[in-house]
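Listing 4. Sequential folding, example run.
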Amino acid sequence: MQEVARLERWWWSTTDGGAVYLKGEVHNDQPPRSLQDGDFIMTSSVEEEQRSNAAEGKLITTVSGRKYILGVAETHDSLADQLEAARCEWRELQKKLHSLKRGELQLHKRPRGHAPEGYYWDALEGGWFDECGLQYVKVKDKKRKIEAIEKKVAKAAAEVGAAAVEAGEPRTRVVAEVGAP
Protein backbone atom coordinates (compact mmCIF):
# COMPACT_ATOMS: atom_id res chain seq x y z
CA MET A 1 0.00 0.00 0.00
CA GLN A 2 1.33 3.42 -0.95
CA GLU A 3 1.66 5.89 1.92
CA VAL A 4 -0.15 9.22 1.66
CA ALA A 5 1.32 12.60 2.55
CA ARG A 6 -0.13 14.34 5.62
CA LEU A 7 -1.01 18.06 5.61
CA GLU A 8 -0.81 19.75 9.03
CA ARG A 9 -1.79 23.30 10.03
CA TRP A 10 -3.76 23.63 6.80
CA TRP A 11 -6.23 26.24 5.64
CA TRP A 12 -8.17 27.16 2.49
CA SER A 13 -7.03 29.95 0.21
CA THR A 14 -8.25 31.30 -3.13
CA THR A 15 -6.60 32.79 -6.21
CA ASP A 16 -7.74 35.86 -8.12
CA GLY A 17 -9.28 33.50 -10.69
CA GLY A 18 -11.46 31.89 -8.00
CA ALA A 19 -9.63 28.56 -7.70
CA VAL A 20 -9.57 27.16 -4.16
CA TYR A 21 -6.51 25.34 -2.86
CA LEU A 22 -4.92 24.18 0.41
CA LYS A 23 -1.90 25.66 2.16
CA GLY A 24 -0.07 23.98 5.02
CA GLU A 25 2.88 21.93 6.28
CA VAL A 26 3.48 18.69 4.44
CA HIS A 27 4.75 15.56 6.22
CA ASN A 28 5.75 12.19 4.72
CA ASP A 29 5.64 13.55 1.17
CA GLN A 30 5.96 10.89 -1.54
CA PRO A 31 8.03 10.85 -4.76
CA PRO A 32 8.47 12.39 -7.24
CA ARG A 33 8.40 15.59 -5.15
CA SER A 34 9.54 14.29 -1.71
CA LEU A 35 9.63 17.51 0.31
CA GLN A 36 11.17 17.65 3.79
CA ASP A 37 8.82 17.19 6.75
CA GLY A 38 7.44 20.55 7.86
CA ASP A 39 7.92 22.30 4.50
CA PHE A 40 5.18 24.77 3.61
CA ILE A 41 3.25 23.94 0.43
CA MET A 42 0.37 25.18 -1.64
CA THR A 43 -1.55 22.36 -3.33
CA SER A 44 -3.20 22.48 -6.73
CA SER A 45 -6.86 23.41 -6.71
CA VAL A 46 -9.44 21.28 -4.89
CA GLU A 47 -12.95 20.60 -6.20
CA GLU A 48 -16.08 21.67 -4.29
CA GLU A 49 -17.04 18.09 -3.37
CA GLN A 50 -13.64 17.53 -1.73
CA ARG A 51 -13.80 20.90 0.09
CA SER A 52 -17.18 20.14 1.67
CA ASN A 53 -15.85 16.88 3.16
CA ALA A 54 -12.60 18.35 4.48
CA ALA A 55 -11.95 17.62 8.16
CA GLU A 56 -9.17 16.31 10.35
CA GLY A 57 -8.27 12.73 9.37
CA LYS A 58 -10.07 12.89 5.98
CA LEU A 59 -8.40 12.09 2.65
CA ILE A 60 -8.40 14.91 0.09
CA THR A 61 -7.52 14.50 -3.60
CA THR A 62 -6.45 17.58 -5.56
CA VAL A 63 -7.25 18.22 -9.24
CA SER A 64 -3.69 17.10 -10.12
CA GLY A 65 -4.35 13.73 -8.40
CA ARG A 66 -2.14 14.17 -5.31
CA LYS A 67 -3.64 12.81 -2.10
CA TYR A 68 -3.30 14.24 1.40
CA ILE A 69 -4.58 13.18 4.79
CA LEU A 70 -5.61 16.31 6.64
CA GLY A 71 -4.16 16.86 10.09
CA VAL A 72 -5.01 19.65 12.49
CA ALA A 73 -6.45 22.70 10.71
CA GLU A 74 -5.06 26.15 11.32
CA THR A 75 -7.83 28.19 12.94
CA HIS A 76 -8.64 31.77 12.11
CA ASP A 77 -7.84 32.79 15.66
CA SER A 78 -4.30 31.42 15.58
CA LEU A 79 -3.65 32.92 12.12
CA ALA A 80 -5.00 36.25 13.32
CA ASP A 81 -2.85 36.04 16.45
CA GLN A 82 0.25 35.32 14.36
CA LEU A 83 -0.57 38.22 12.06
CA GLU A 84 -1.12 40.58 15.00
CA ALA A 85 2.17 39.51 16.62
CA ALA A 86 4.02 40.10 13.35
CA ARG A 87 2.40 43.53 13.02
CA CYS A 88 3.39 44.47 16.60
CA GLU A 89 6.97 43.39 15.97
CA TRP A 90 6.99 45.35 12.71
CA ARG A 91 5.71 48.48 14.52
CA GLU A 92 8.44 48.18 17.17
CA LEU A 93 11.11 47.83 14.49
CA GLN A 94 9.67 50.84 12.63
CA LYS A 95 9.79 52.92 15.84
CA LYS A 96 13.43 51.97 16.41
CA LEU A 97 14.29 52.81 12.80
CA HIS A 98 12.62 56.24 12.98
CA SER A 99 14.31 56.94 16.32
CA LEU A 100 17.68 56.05 14.79
CA LYS A 101 17.00 58.34 11.83
CA ARG A 102 16.09 61.22 14.17
CA GLY A 103 19.15 60.53 16.30
CA GLU A 104 17.19 59.74 19.46
CA LEU A 105 18.70 56.29 19.87
CA GLN A 106 22.41 56.21 20.37
CA LEU A 107 24.39 53.36 18.88
CA HIS A 108 26.87 51.90 21.32
CA LYS A 109 30.34 51.35 19.95
CA ARG A 110 31.70 47.84 20.18
CA PRO A 111 34.42 47.55 22.83
CA ARG A 112 37.89 46.47 21.79
CA GLY A 113 38.99 42.90 22.23
CA HIS A 114 37.46 39.54 21.60
CA ALA A 115 33.81 38.79 22.18
CA PRO A 116 32.92 36.32 24.91
CA GLU A 117 32.50 32.92 23.27
CA GLY A 118 29.02 32.43 21.84
CA TYR A 119 28.03 36.11 22.18
CA TYR A 120 27.60 38.99 19.70
CA TRP A 121 27.58 42.77 20.19
CA ASP A 122 24.21 44.55 20.01
CA ALA A 123 24.80 48.22 19.14
CA LEU A 124 21.28 49.33 20.15
CA GLU A 125 21.31 47.65 23.56
CA GLY A 126 25.00 48.19 24.18
CA GLY A 127 25.95 44.73 25.37
CA TRP A 128 27.00 41.19 24.50
CA PHE A 129 24.08 38.83 23.80
CA ASP A 130 23.81 35.13 22.91
CA GLU A 131 21.52 33.65 20.24
CA CYS A 132 18.67 33.38 22.79
CA GLY A 133 18.88 37.10 23.55
CA LEU A 134 20.37 36.67 27.03
CA GLN A 135 22.91 39.32 28.00
CA TYR A 136 26.45 38.38 29.01
CA VAL A 137 27.12 39.23 32.64
CA LYS A 138 30.65 39.18 33.94
CA VAL A 139 30.73 37.63 37.41
CA LYS A 140 32.44 39.91 39.89
CA ASP A 141 33.52 37.80 42.81
CA LYS A 142 34.50 39.97 45.81
CA LYS A 143 36.54 37.16 47.39
CA ARG A 144 38.64 36.75 44.23
CA LYS A 145 39.23 40.51 44.04
CA ILE A 146 40.46 40.56 47.65
CA GLU A 147 42.79 37.62 46.99
CA ALA A 148 44.20 39.38 43.91
CA ILE A 149 44.82 42.58 45.91
CA GLU A 150 46.49 40.58 48.70
CA LYS A 151 48.83 38.97 46.14
CA LYS A 152 49.73 42.39 44.70
CA VAL A 153 50.42 43.79 48.18
CA ALA A 154 52.55 40.78 49.11
CA LYS A 155 54.56 41.16 45.88
CA ALA A 156 55.04 44.89 46.46
CA ALA A 157 56.07 44.22 50.06
CA ALA A 158 58.62 41.65 48.92
CA GLU A 159 60.03 44.15 46.42
CA VAL A 160 60.25 46.90 49.06
CA GLY A 161 61.94 44.50 51.50
CA ALA A 162 64.44 43.39 48.83
CA ALA A 163 65.20 47.03 47.93
CA ALA A 164 65.81 47.86 51.61
CA VAL A 165 68.27 44.97 52.01
CA GLU A 166 70.15 46.03 48.87
CA ALA A 167 70.41 49.60 50.20
CA GLY A 168 71.98 48.31 53.38
CA GLU A 169 69.10 49.31 55.59
CA PRO A 170 68.14 47.02 58.41
CA ARG A 171 65.44 44.59 57.44
CA THR A 172 62.03 46.16 57.93
CA ARG A 173 58.66 44.56 58.05
CA VAL A 174 56.08 45.97 55.65
CA VAL A 175 52.49 45.80 56.82
CA ALA A 176 49.64 46.66 54.52
CA GLU A 177 45.94 46.74 55.19
CA VAL A 178 43.69 45.20 52.64
CA GLY A 179 40.31 46.81 52.34
CA ALA A 180 37.30 46.06 50.25
CA PRO A 181 37.61 47.50 46.74
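-- end of first protein; second protein begins --
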Amino acid sequence: MTEISEGLQGQVQGAYAFTGAAAASLVAPFVELDRVDIFLGSAEGGGRLRERTEGESTGPKLRLIYPYDAGVFLYCRWEGKVPIVSNLQAYLDLYARGGRDLKQADYVSGLTRQGSLSLVSDPDKTPVQGIALQLP
Protein backbone atom coordinates (compact mmCIF):
# COMPACT_ATOMS: atom_id res chain seq x y z
CA MET A 1 0.00 0.00 0.00
CA THR A 2 2.78 2.42 0.89
CA GLU A 3 4.41 2.12 -2.53
CA ILE A 4 1.11 2.71 -4.31
CA SER A 5 0.29 5.70 -2.08
CA GLU A 6 3.69 7.29 -2.65
CA GLY A 7 3.26 6.83 -6.41
CA LEU A 8 -0.14 8.51 -6.29
CA GLN A 9 1.10 11.57 -4.38
CA GLY A 10 2.77 13.04 -7.44
CA GLN A 11 0.00 12.01 -9.84
CA VAL A 12 -3.27 12.88 -8.10
CA GLN A 13 -4.48 16.41 -7.51
CA GLY A 14 -6.67 16.72 -4.45
CA ALA A 15 -7.76 14.13 -1.94
CA TYR A 16 -7.56 10.39 -2.36
CA ALA A 17 -8.07 7.50 0.04
CA PHE A 18 -7.87 3.73 -0.08
CA THR A 19 -11.07 1.81 0.66
CA GLY A 20 -12.44 -1.71 0.73
CA ALA A 21 -9.96 -4.57 1.05
CA ALA A 22 -7.02 -2.17 0.65
CA ALA A 23 -8.09 -0.23 3.76
CA ALA A 24 -8.98 -3.42 5.64
CA SER A 25 -5.58 -4.93 4.88
CA LEU A 26 -4.07 -2.43 7.29
CA VAL A 27 -6.29 -3.48 10.24
CA ALA A 28 -7.45 -7.03 9.42
CA PRO A 29 -5.27 -10.11 8.93
CA PHE A 30 -5.18 -12.32 5.89
CA VAL A 31 -6.49 -9.89 3.32
CA GLU A 32 -5.53 -11.06 -0.13
CA LEU A 33 -5.45 -8.11 -2.50
CA ASP A 34 -6.24 -8.71 -6.13
CA ARG A 35 -7.63 -5.20 -6.56
CA VAL A 36 -6.95 -1.92 -4.78
CA ASP A 37 -9.92 0.47 -4.60
CA ILE A 38 -9.06 4.16 -4.38
CA PHE A 39 -11.48 7.06 -4.05
CA LEU A 40 -10.31 10.14 -5.96
CA GLY A 41 -11.59 13.54 -4.87
CA SER A 42 -10.94 15.19 -8.22
CA ALA A 43 -11.26 14.04 -11.81
CA GLU A 44 -8.24 16.20 -12.70
CA GLY A 45 -5.24 13.98 -13.06
CA GLY A 46 -7.44 10.88 -12.83
CA GLY A 47 -7.42 10.40 -16.59
CA ARG A 48 -3.64 10.61 -16.69
CA LEU A 49 -3.40 8.19 -13.80
CA ARG A 50 -5.86 5.82 -15.48
CA GLU A 51 -3.67 5.73 -18.59
CA ARG A 52 -0.64 4.80 -16.48
CA THR A 53 -2.50 1.97 -14.71
CA GLU A 54 -3.84 0.29 -17.87
CA GLY A 55 -0.53 -1.34 -18.82
CA GLU A 56 0.98 -4.54 -17.51
CA SER A 57 1.50 -4.57 -13.76
CA THR A 58 3.16 -6.91 -11.30
CA GLY A 59 0.92 -5.85 -8.40
CA PRO A 60 -2.81 -5.77 -7.82
CA LYS A 61 -5.06 -3.90 -10.24
CA LEU A 62 -6.04 -0.36 -9.27
CA ARG A 63 -9.70 0.62 -9.41
CA LEU A 64 -10.09 4.39 -9.40
CA ILE A 65 -13.45 5.53 -8.06
CA TYR A 66 -14.96 9.00 -8.34
CA PRO A 67 -17.42 9.16 -5.44
CA TYR A 68 -20.90 10.63 -5.73
CA ASP A 69 -20.00 13.17 -3.04
CA ALA A 70 -17.10 14.01 -0.74
CA GLY A 71 -18.71 12.24 2.22
CA VAL A 72 -16.49 9.21 1.62
CA PHE A 73 -13.55 11.34 2.80
CA LEU A 74 -15.22 12.14 6.12
CA TYR A 75 -13.08 10.76 8.98
CA CYS A 76 -10.29 9.64 6.64
CA ARG A 77 -7.03 9.03 8.45
CA TRP A 78 -3.43 8.07 7.82
CA GLU A 79 -2.32 4.52 8.53
CA GLY A 80 1.44 4.97 8.27
CA LYS A 81 1.93 6.76 4.94
CA VAL A 82 -1.36 5.55 3.49
CA PRO A 83 -4.58 7.61 3.58
CA ILE A 84 -7.57 5.34 4.21
CA VAL A 85 -11.29 5.94 4.53
CA SER A 86 -13.05 5.64 7.88
CA ASN A 87 -13.66 2.18 9.21
CA LEU A 88 -17.37 2.67 8.59
CA GLN A 89 -16.81 3.53 4.91
CA ALA A 90 -14.42 0.58 4.50
CA TYR A 91 -17.02 -1.71 6.10
CA LEU A 92 -19.77 -0.46 3.76
CA ASP A 93 -17.58 -0.89 0.68
CA LEU A 94 -16.48 -4.38 1.71
CA TYR A 95 -20.07 -5.38 2.47
CA ALA A 96 -21.27 -4.09 -0.91
CA ARG A 97 -18.67 -6.15 -2.79
CA GLY A 98 -19.66 -9.39 -1.05
CA GLY A 99 -17.75 -12.65 -1.48
CA ARG A 100 -14.37 -12.71 0.25
CA ASP A 101 -14.76 -9.02 1.05
CA LEU A 102 -17.87 -9.79 3.10
CA LYS A 103 -15.73 -11.86 5.46
CA GLN A 104 -13.39 -8.91 5.91
CA ALA A 105 -16.40 -6.65 6.56
CA ASP A 106 -17.50 -9.05 9.29
CA TYR A 107 -14.00 -9.01 10.76
CA VAL A 108 -13.88 -5.18 10.84
CA SER A 109 -17.35 -5.16 12.40
CA GLY A 110 -16.23 -7.73 14.98
CA LEU A 111 -13.28 -5.57 15.98
CA THR A 112 -15.71 -2.75 16.61
CA ARG A 113 -17.96 -4.89 18.79
CA GLN A 114 -14.92 -5.94 20.84
CA GLY A 115 -14.07 -2.28 21.40
CA SER A 116 -10.63 -2.51 19.80
CA LEU A 117 -11.59 -0.47 16.74
CA SER A 118 -14.12 2.28 16.17
CA LEU A 119 -16.21 2.14 13.00
CA VAL A 120 -16.15 5.91 12.69
CA SER A 121 -12.71 6.98 13.74
CA ASP A 122 -9.68 5.77 15.64
CA PRO A 123 -8.69 8.56 18.06
CA ASP A 124 -5.05 7.46 17.98
CA LYS A 125 -4.76 8.06 14.23
CA THR A 126 -4.19 11.44 12.64
CA PRO A 127 -7.00 12.62 10.34
CA VAL A 128 -6.12 13.26 6.70
CA GLN A 129 -5.28 16.93 6.33
CA GLY A 130 -6.18 19.09 3.37
CA ILE A 131 -9.55 17.54 2.62
CA ALA A 132 -12.12 20.27 2.49
CA LEU A 133 -15.76 19.46 1.91
CA GLN A 134 -17.52 21.92 -0.35
CA LEU A 135 -21.18 22.12 0.50
CA PRO A 136 -23.72 23.65 -1.89
